Amino acid sequence: MRFNLIGLILLLLSPIAGANVNIQNWQTSQGSRVYFVQTPSLPMVDLRVTFDAGNARDGAQFGLSALTSALLDTGAGSWNADEIANRFEAVGAAFSSGVSEDMAWLSLRTLTEKALFDDAVSTFQTILTQPTFNPDDFQREKNRTLAGLKHREESPGALASLAFQKALYHDHPYAHPEEGMLDTVSAFEVSDLTAFYKKYYVSSNAIVVIVGDLQRQQAENLAEKLTAGLPVGEKPAEIPPVTLPTQASTQHIEFPSSQTHVLSGMPGVHRKDPDYFTLYVGNYILGGGSLVSKLFDEVREKRGLAYSASSQFVPLFREGPFVMSLQTRNDQTEQAIGVMNATLNDFIKNGPTESELLAAKKNITGGFALRTDNNSKVTEYVTMIGFYQQPLDYLDQFPAKVDAVSLENIKDAFQRRIRPELLQTVSAGGGK
Amino acid sequence: MQREFMKPGIAALMLLCPALSVQAEASKVREQILANGLKVLVKEDHRAPVVVSQVWYKVGSSYEPGGITGISHMLEHMMFKGTKQYPAGEFSRIIAENGGQENAFTGNDYTAYFQTIEKSRLEICFKLEADRMRNLDLKAEELEKELQVVTEERRMRTDDKPQAKTQEQFNAVAFANSPYKHPVIGWPSDIANYKVEDLQAWYQQWYAPNNATLVVVGDVDAEQVVKLAEQYFADLKPSEIKPIKPQDEIEQKGVKKITVKAPAKLPFIMLGYKAPVLKTAKPEWEAYALEVLAGILDGGNGARLSTRLVRGKEIAVSAGAGYDMTSRLPEMFMLEATPAEGKTVFDLEYALKQEVYQLQTELVSKEELQRIKAQVLANDIYQKDSNFYQAMQIGILETVGLSWQKGDEYVRNINQVTAEQVREVARKYLIEDTLTVAYLDPQPITEAPKPAKLTGGHHAF
């Protein structure tokens, strides 16, 4: 059954998890860290193997990480793409792979009924450890990626996003989009993908997350079996630090659309940033609380300038973006940017009020259980904890850390970290 | 978005491996109809200390007469603009302060409001939803602003998206008189001309306990939830809800074809055949057979469109099939695809029709059929990982005039579909005379996008 709907606001995926999640942690004999959460209520399991092999590892070959990931299930062991798909689908299992800035992952959701589980896992393990990178499959998937890159050029939002990333990160590995660029992807050879796979898809660079209806011993066997087929290899060098822009910039991309898409921001926080919780709480008030934030109120509720207006911090291994975004009718662009900037500047200068802070804390701590209320969300959260080596009690500490944030903390952190004189602003849309 | 494709939910292994303990279970739903007509449906799920509460109204874009298309969606927005007791912004502020997540959505056949919240705070949701069911305070000045918001929403969802635009025009042409010809968000000139009286009349006509369903799924005691619902909703007065006119789509007498020109980089094709839905199919198995047919074509990476058109012939970079069996009115069985470099939409049209022809002339294999059924059974379990999805399924089925029990019958009915039945519905419904085809014809986006204005030095694009 499918659902046809249009919402009041975009349904933002909230990538967050919750309390009462008991994470068991160990290492495989090959040196992969394993994170296991036993959830016995449904006869299913989610399995995710994640490598430090996201698009920040592309080097100059923008899009290499993503295309390598896309090729994995097009041929492995003695099976071709059709056979792999059939093997999963015949047992009702769902496989996917993907990349983000920092991560490349392979995921499996399967039933735990032994015959089905064993088939699904053995197919998954073959994809993980013996992908064939067949030249025909490579050419086809490369062509599909190139078509996707052309499709991107139909979208003013996507074009703004490209320019925004570049403005924030210059030559840093976070500066390019995961799917790459037409010229870089066009130049790929199949040997580029096999080299990338060999270097990064190794057990010392892997973490294994298992969430579902398994016993500890089964989970141990599973993790051991999966990583046994991978060479130990080595962890890659850390992603280099981010250099902040030296001055503010504004650029406009002309596009024949009825709306102009606006993005404004600068590099924000990293995953272990001491300011993370303070900025997270502050940003909930500024633009993170979906129907109740200052940006939403000023841009949409008071003035009807946009359908969505929000801000967020995207914490990565290094400082991920702080970004404010909105879309508005072309001739209102200047006004909307003015309102957005004034809202930000006021927030930096004066911070939130006592009652705003209280409301934010009530929302974040009062809704904490929502963050881990199903296996999908637990899998996401545990992957984050494992990959970035957060403490295993990260989720238990979370509410207390939020509660400890003060008005002064927020004002101070925003004044130090979000600097209008360094803001990068990009717009894409029809001319004035 | 209206008529967006979602992979058909699929599955059952019982035929394949009779020894398996994996089976679809009947869900335990507590049903209570209050004296004022409000139907309350509660499903306990104790996996996490949270609960989802949804209020579904039997009204959506397919209820709307010409001139005010999109008004259900507009009203959905206005439902956040306050009552006498809780002025504009209070609803969202209170839910947020209680750690809740909330939103609303409108479709062809329904308008629904939801909150997900820690279990002890369900009462707050009921108090607020009961209040805005009958006491909305519609103000002209709020409408004026919100109308701009909805106009921006339309620009973002449809006007600036070539494929969405194609879809909108496709619906407008494929349906001659069915209200499914209108976009959920409404036509621009209708949106621009809503008056507060229009909204008031629409609210009065449809927002009443006897036109609503309250669905609750989560870590709750069903009996207590029913009591709580009594406490907050029982005093609301029912309305006289007049049955909506049938607006039966007239019979299509030959293929319709349109071209949509838009600034774009890739061509795109959509084909839609008129098809019955669960509510209208006679016999009912035809709807399940069409669902299986969609799965044969597009139920995963091993289905025919992926193996044959994307891989195999390599003529498409993407291809999909879609069928929504839970609509209130007859629908379309959809095929859509984007050509690979060097191929055209006409190559794709030919290839898609070849797939249709084969389904009409050859029986699908036993393996294919079992694969679909395996997926359907597995998905039935996976979906239980989400309270929201479970509530959604109950809400939709009730609101389109089926019943929540249909959800429990789904796996069994899919399981009973035979290869012969799949061939039969392909022969009966995937026919040229009821086909509509839309081609997206890409127009230049001007020259390569480049920064027209650049200040601040070294940030060359």
Instruction: Encode the helix/strand succession of chain B as letters.
Output: EEEHHEEHHHHHEHEEHHEEHHHHHEE
- The global form of chain A is globular
Q: What top-tier CATH class of the largest domain in chain A fits best?
A: Alpha Beta
Which regions of chain B contain 5 or more consecutive residues with pLDDT less than 50?
1-23, 448-461
Termini gap of chain B: 33 Å
User: Which of globular, elongated, flat, extended, rod-shaped describes the shape of chain B?
Assistant: globular
Largest interface: A-B, 103 and 119 residues
Assign the CATH superfamily of the largest domain in chain B: Metalloenzyme, LuxS/M16 peptidase-like
Radius of gyration of chain B: 24 Å
Report the CATH superfamily of the largest domain in chain A. Answer: Metalloenzyme, LuxS/M16 peptidase-like
Structural summary, described in words:
Chain A has 432 residues and is an alpha+beta fold. Chain A folds into 2 domains: 24-228, Cytochrome Bc1 Complex, Chain A, domain 1; 249-429, Metalloenzyme, LuxS/M16 peptidase-like (Cytochrome Bc1 Complex, Chain A, domain 1, 2-Layer Sandwich). In chain A, 42% of the residues lie in helices and 19% in strands. Chain A is built from 15 helices and 14 strands. In chain A, the strands form 3 sheets. Chain A has a 6-stranded mixed β-sheet with strand order 2-3-9-4-8-7, sandwiched between helices. A 5-stranded mixed β-sheet of chain A has the order 10-14-11-13-12, sandwiched between helices. Chain A has a two-stranded antiparallel ribbon with strand order 5-6. In chain A, helix 1 packs across helix 7, helix 9 (276-288) crosses helix 12 and helix 9 crosses helix 15 (407-417). The longest helix of chain A is centred in the N-terminal third of the chain and has 18 residues, at 135-152. The model of chain A is unreliable at 1-18 (pLDDT under 50). Chain B has 461 residues and is α+β, with helices and mostly antiparallel strands. Chain B has 2 domains: 29-233, Metalloenzyme, LuxS/M16 peptidase-like (Cytochrome Bc1 Complex, Chain A, domain 1), CATH 3.30.830; 256-443, 2-Layer Sandwich (Cytochrome Bc1 Complex, Chain A, domain 1). Chain B is 39% helix and 19% strand. Chain B is built from 15 helices and 12 strands. Chain B has a 6-stranded mixed β-sheet with strand order 1-2-6-3-5-4, sandwiched between helices. In chain B, strands 7-11-8-10-9 form a 5-stranded mixed β-sheet, with helices on both faces. The radius of gyration of chain B is 24 Å and the shape is globular. Chain B starts with 28 loop residues before the first strand and ends in a 6-residue tail after the last strand. The interface between A and B is large, with 103 and 119 residues.
